[in-house]
Amino acid sequence: MSLSINGFVTGTFTSDGNPVNLSIPSGYNDFDMINITDIGSTAANNNVMKARGTSAMTAGSAYYSPKTSGAATLDLEATTTTGGFTFLADSATVAIGALTATSGTDINRANPAVVSTGTTTGLVASSSVVRLINNVGMLQISGMDFTIGTISAGVSFQLKYLNNSGFAADSTSGSFRIINATDRYYPRRRFITAITQASPAVITLSVTHGYTVGQAVRIVVPSVFGMTQMNGLLGNITAVTTGSTNTISVDIDSTAFTTFAFPTSAIAAGGITFAQVVPVGEAAINSTSQPYGNLLDDATDNQSITGVTIGATVQTTGKIYQYFARKGTSI
Amino acid sequence: MNEAAQRLGVSLRQTEDQLMRDMLASTASFINCVGGTNGDNPTEITRSDVDVVVRTLRGNNAYSFMTGVEGEDRFGTAPVRDAYFGLGHSDLIGQLDNVAGFIQKWNYPNQASTLDAEWGTVANIRFLLSSIGSTTPNASLLGATVYNIFCCGREAFAAIEQDGYSASFIYLPPQIAGGPLALNSSVGYKFAEVPRITNDTWVFNLRCTLV
Predict the structure, then answer these.
(1) Is A181 on the interface with B (CB under 8 A)?
(2) pLDDT tens digits, residue range A164-181?
(3) What digits encode the pLDDT tens for the residues B89-139?
(4) Is residue B93 part of a domain?
(5) Of the candidates A313, A303, A306, A328, which has an alpha carbon nearest to the alpha carbon of residue A33?
(6) Cα–Cα distance between A151 and A138 in angstroms, integer?
(7) Domain count, chain B
(8) Which residue of B has its CA nearest to A92?
């Protein structure tokens, strides 16, 4: 005789068209979701209405049903092996992407820099993070991670927060990999791509930073990056930008500091340490009565999840989906 | 049951170590090894790289973990300096042996203060190696795996237990968890804690690749 135990989890999310990671701590055997925005719609589109995956299916697979264009009915069910559901055992340990070569002009000098490649599969604009590898002529950014900007499918993508127009030469060969995992703990150390000579100093970071006003950060600027006066300074974040720019402002006056600039490719070939922002401190509430508060936005927060990655194929931008995750076992 | 409890105890502490490792990998500032000759960035670890970290930690007045081991009149031994810890991956075995001034644990004048995981010492760093040491895949200039060695002084980081909660061992006997026929029992552990750097100038991630 055995005893069966079954679990059930439900919730909703609004699709932005990009892959989304949902936390389902127990995991799942069976996962499906329905579009609750377009019920009864007779609009002329093929929005995804239903999708289903199981734990035994290959990663990225799904059964899914688009809406019939011009009618409030479901079209024939379709299947996919990419862009469907992928079980996520630990979001911090998802394997890194395959090595992909740059091509053509490889990496040009522009603001933002553009990477040319024949393969943009798997990249999501303004979301994916890539790691550059052995980029001849631009070794000063090889080994760094970057959030990408816009994508020209099969042609190129931007390094959204890198202005490398001051570099001495284009990259003539090299590779990149898509970084599918994020570091487990927040806040995270980030690479610096620029620092202004201003008060307050404005620091641009290569990957979407996630910092908040009030956090304290240590700024590490090795001597080959020029602005040596900044190295080791502790600053409080007074403003942040995200989206088209990715900066933090810190309460440091860098007006009289020397210019921040990447070292040459030749210097990097001999070994360098990258410029970094290191989160270190307590959050401060900028009021006299409560200068320091328990905001927890600078606490070391384990943000990794167990759950599922819902791919772009089985969702439609702007639609609300309700999901149902089930798991059963017998003892 | 005793064996299961023993294994769970190891698993508990190893999980704590892994979380601490991941926090340090996410947050600690790093110094790339640049003294090697393998043509990568970072390079393989060398004496000059260890000296940079020791100089930085000492320059920040970090407390050392271990007192020195005084020299004794024994063949093949050498005195060991007071030291910070370097927490790394066991793949670094062999790499460390090639670093100038490396003293293998077994060549310490006496073994009284050595630790199970200890592999040896260079200058003022004593290296503790483990198969769950931190690595970052494909992160070097040439795309090789980068090995993270967390070089730290005493009280540089801590595991902070959450209010009113500590690690607990759980055992439910078959009569409770095993259904009507008492076929199964349940054994496990749970803990709630936050790993946290307490002084960011006392811990550095020395990153290196292999030869």
Answers:
(1) no
(2) 999 999 999 999 999 988
(3) 999 999 999 999 999 998 888 888 888 899 999 999 999 999 999 999 999
(4) yes
(5) A313
(6) 21
(7) 1
(8) B22
Query: Quick one: A62 exposed, middle or buried, by C-beta within 10 A (0-12, 13-18, 19+)?
Result: buried
Nearest Cα residue in chain A from B197: A280
Please give the structure tokens belonging to residue B162.
């959450």
Alpha carbon separation from B120 to A150, A153, B124 (Å, rounded) = 49, 52, 11
- pLDDT-based confidence at A286, cuts 50/70/90? low
**Which of B37, B61, B136, B138 is best to mutate for the A interface (most A CBs within 10 A)?**
B138
Looking at the 3D structure of chain A, how many domains does it have? Answer: 3
Residue range of the domain that includes A141: 100-179
- Name the nearest CA neighbour of A142 among B135, B34, B140: B140
Domain assignment present for B185: no
For the stretch A200-246, pLDDT in tens is 999 999 999 999 888 899 999 999 999 999 999 999 999 999 999 99
Same domain, A223 and A269: yes
| A1 reaches B (C-beta below 8 A) | yes
Residue A151, amino acid: I
Q: On the CB side of A43, how many CA atoms lie within 13 Å of its CA?
A: 10
Residues A60, A82: contact at Cβ < 8 Å? yes
Confidence of residue A116 (pLDDT cuts 50, 70, 90): very high
Q: What is the pLDDT of residues B1-11, one digit of tens each?
A: 778 788 888 99
Domain that holds residue B17: 2-159+195-208
CATH code for the domain of A161? 2.40.30.180
